[in-house]
Automatic annotation (TrEMBL):
It is a multi-pass membrane protein. Residues 72-286 form the ABC transmembrane type-1 domain. Belongs to the binding-protein-dependent transport system permease family. CysTW subfamily. The chain crosses the membrane at residues 22-45, 78-100, 120-143, 155-184, 204-226, 233-253, 265-287. Its main location: membrane. The keyword Cell membrane applies. The lineage of its organism: Bacteria, Pseudomonadati, Pseudomonadota, Alphaproteobacteria, Rhodobacterales. This is ABC transporter permease subunit. Keywords: Cell membrane, Membrane, Transmembrane, Transmembrane helix, Transport. It comes from the Bacteria. It is found in: Cell membrane. Pfam families: BPD_transp_1 (PF00528). One of its GO terms (biological process) is transmembrane transport. GO terms for cellular component: plasma membrane.
């Protein structure tokens, strides 16, 4: 045997180390399976099950009844209005924060506040708006006593369609700012410099360069805001009780067990909501993938 042989370099491939980093994802996968995937399968099965336990399409056909169709249309209109206004207002706010040349501490403060406000909903948000824009709210009384103007004399009500839209904007605008900021940061200064060197004005740059680049991101954010508003329940039920018949409230009534108790119809309602939200999120993902081409 040759004693000069290097034993550490020639005796086959090194043993493979078992990578255990994926174990960190186990709690998330388990949580998602228990509280997302399994319930969805349960809802789908329940939507096609009759009171006697057999297969039926009656629950899905029931979604076409005038009352339920009206609830879906009301939810869609409310979601579209809050998403459209939230998209425009959030985009202008993000433009001012990202491209407006503001001090860094203002940008950090607004971004931090947006992270909190985008998750502020439910009973606390409803109470905050009642204390602000209710009939005896701070802003309502201030306008009445200082300017002699009663905002409720115009027909406005916090518990009406547009009152709910204004309430939704509290979390829609911050969410828009957070999700559109990376797209605005992706606008390269070289693009504006090249446009200006060719004689383009500011509006021409935005019309021919900025807007086409941002369009997929803005449309994707609009769909995300639409899905966010469509599934809101706690805020609207805290403000209006069960008097504003959007789909989440109708679903709540079917599941909760009052006079409208019909859990299988409730499962069908939930399935209809899931299909609308899945379609919105899939379009959002597709548009986001298209927009990310410009951020590389």
């Amino acid at each position: 045997m040759d004693g000069s042989r290097d034993l550490t370099a020639t005796d086959g491939p090194a043993p493979r180390r078992l990578n255990l980093d994926w174990l960190g994802a186990v709690p998330f996968i388990g949580f998602s399976a228990l509280f997302l995937i399994v319930p969805v399968f349960y809802l789908v099965a329940g939507a096609f099950t009759g009171p006697e336990g057999g297969f039926t399409l009656d629950n899905m056909i029931g979604l076409t009844s005038p009352e339920i169709a009206s609830s879906f249309w009301l939810s869609i209109r409310l979601s579209l209005a809050s998403a459209l206004i939230g998209t425009l207002a959030g985009l202008l706010l993000a433009h001012a924060i990202v491209l407006g040349g503001m001090p860094g501490w203002i940008r950090r403060s607004v971004t931090t506040f947006s992270g909190v406000a985008s998750n502020f909903a439910g009973v606390p948000l409803a109470f905050a708006f009642i204390a602000t824009l209710g009939r005896l709210g701070l802003v309502t009384v201030l306008f009445r006593q200082v300017f002699g103007f009663d905002i409720y004399s115009t027909g406005f009500s916090l518990f009406s369609f547009w009152g709910l839209v204004i309430t939704y904007l509290y979390f829609q605008m911050p969410l828009m700012l957070l999700v559109i900021t990376p797209a605005l940061e992706g606008l390269k200064p070289e693009w504006r410099e090249a446009a200006e060197s060719l004689g383009a004005s500011g509006p021409q740059y935005w019309t021919m360069v900025g807007a086409p680049v941002l369009a997929p991101s803005v449309m994707g954010c609009f769909l995300l805001l639409f899905a966010n508003a469509f599934g809101t329940l706690a805020t609207i039920i805290a403000l209006t009780g069960s008097n504003f018949s959007v789909v989440p409230i109708l679903l709540f009534q079917q599941i909760r067990g009052n006079v409208l108790y019909n859990p299988n119809l409730g499962y069908a309602l939930a399935l209809g909501m899931i299909l609308i939200m899945v379609a919105s999120n899939l379009l959002y993902i597709a548009l986001r993938a298209r927009a990310e081409r410009w951020q590389k």
